[in-house]
């Protein structure tokens, strides 16, 4: 779809299903070539939300034909134990993707653990080598949520070149990589954050708004230019009318009538994150196999 009808919903579930169908086809091709993509998921502790996320990731992997391995460590596990497990998975050639579910218990340094993952197996795209490579425009594993947002934008708008995109939020997981991906797509990019001045006025100039600030319904109609496309990354649980509800960073009811297209919460960006994780796993498997093949060819040439 290259043009958006007024106020249309961007159906993240439908696009995620399409991505997973593409991944499934790629997995079949890889298996014919003798490659079985495998994803290792490491869960430390008893965080209920983390357990739900891991279960969903394992389910999606199975549906796509990706072999999944689960490693569950108790909350009192030491940093050394977690790092030892990561090192073991790094050295296992049958494992193509490693995901350490965040958050980790407070006594474990998350940065140290993420940095310990082989960048070639870093399917979350959080290792500094992948972060730096993204900024340089290299072909690296990209964080799943921003990559999912880009797929939604391209499916909605087609070519993004020349469009003014505003990213609200500057987190390492969403805001910063989102800005880098939009720049790579030849957008003009503005990043707004808690210290930005005239944030509303700046946002009202945007053709594309990506809200990733973590504040429920912060972005209302005053922030949006008529005809903008809005991607709402926020997932906030609030109590309203005696019920627990999931809402985004965007005040959907007020903003939707102004937009050309907008993601709902839930059902927008969320499903895309897991779908792109599966895509990253297949990409990692293909790249690792290509490197191994090239290395074998080089070794054979050197011995002749």
TrEMBL record:
Homodimer. Its EC number is 1.5.1.5, 3.5.4.9. InterPro entries: Aminoacid_DH-like_N_sf (IPR046346), NAD(P)-bd_dom_sf (IPR036291), THF_DH/CycHdrlase (IPR000672), THF_DH/CycHdrlase_cat_dom (IPR020630), THF_DH/CycHdrlase_CS (IPR020867), THF_DH/CycHdrlase_NAD-bd_dom (IPR020631). This is Bifunctional protein FolD. It catalyses: (6R)-5,10-methylene-5,6,7,8-tetrahydrofolate + NADP(+) = (6R)-5,10-methenyltetrahydrofolate + NADPH; (6R)-5,10-methenyltetrahydrofolate + H2O = (6R)-10-formyltetrahydrofolate + H(+). GO terms for molecular function: methenyltetrahydrofolate cyclohydrolase activity; methylenetetrahydrofolate dehydrogenase (NADP+) activity. Pathway: One-carbon metabolism; tetrahydrofolate interconversion. It comes from the Bacteria. Residues 10-124 form the Tetrahydrofolate dehydrogenase/cyclohydrolase catalytic domain. Belongs to the tetrahydrofolate dehydrogenase/cyclohydrolase family. Catalyzes the oxidation of 5,10-methylenetetrahydrofolate to 5,10-methenyltetrahydrofolate and then the hydrolysis of 5,10-methenyltetrahydrofolate to 10-formyltetrahydrofolate. One of its GO terms (biological process) is L-histidine biosynthetic process. Residues 143-288 form the Tetrahydrofolate dehydrogenase/cyclohydrolase NAD(P)-binding domain. One of its GO terms (cellular component) is cytosol.
């Amino acid at each position: 779809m290259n043009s958006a009808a007024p106020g249309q919903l961007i159906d993240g579930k439908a696009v995620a299903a399409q991505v997973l169908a593409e991944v499934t086809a790629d997995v079949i091709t890889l298996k014919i070539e003798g490659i079985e993509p495998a994803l290792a998921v490491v869960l430390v502790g008893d965080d209920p939300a983390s357990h739900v996320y891991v279960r969903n990731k394992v389910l999606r992997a199975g549906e796509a034909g990706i072999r999944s391995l689960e490693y569950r460590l108790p909350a009192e596990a030491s940093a050394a134990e977690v790092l030892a497990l990561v090192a073991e998975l790094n050295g296992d050639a049958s494992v193509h993707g490693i995901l350490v579910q965040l958050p980790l218990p407070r006594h474990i340094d998350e940065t140290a653990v993420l940095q310990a993952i082989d960048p070639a197996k870093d399917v979350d795209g959080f290792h500094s080598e992948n972060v730096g490579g993204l900024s340089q425009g290299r072909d690296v594993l990209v964080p799943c949520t921003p990559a999912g947002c880009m797929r939604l934008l391209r499916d909605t708008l087609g070519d993004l070149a020349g469009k003014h995109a505003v990213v609200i939020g500057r987190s390492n997981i969403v805001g910063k990589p989102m800005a880098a991906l939009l720049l790579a797509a030849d957008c003009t990019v503005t990043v707004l954050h808690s210290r930005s001045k005239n944030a509303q006025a700046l946002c009202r100039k945007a053709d594309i708004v990506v809200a990733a600030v973590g504040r429920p319904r912060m972005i209302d109609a005053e922030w949006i230019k008529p005809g903008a496309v809005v991607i709402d990354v926020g997932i906030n649980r609030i109590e309203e009318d005696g019920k627990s509800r999931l809402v985004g960073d965007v005040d959907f009811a007020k903003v939707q009538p102004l937009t050309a297209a907008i993601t709902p919460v839930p059902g927008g960006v969320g499903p895309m994150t897991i779908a792109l994780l599966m895509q990253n796993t297949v990409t990692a498997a293909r790249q690792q196999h290509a490197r191994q093949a090239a290395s074998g060819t080089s070794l054979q040439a050197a011995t002749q």
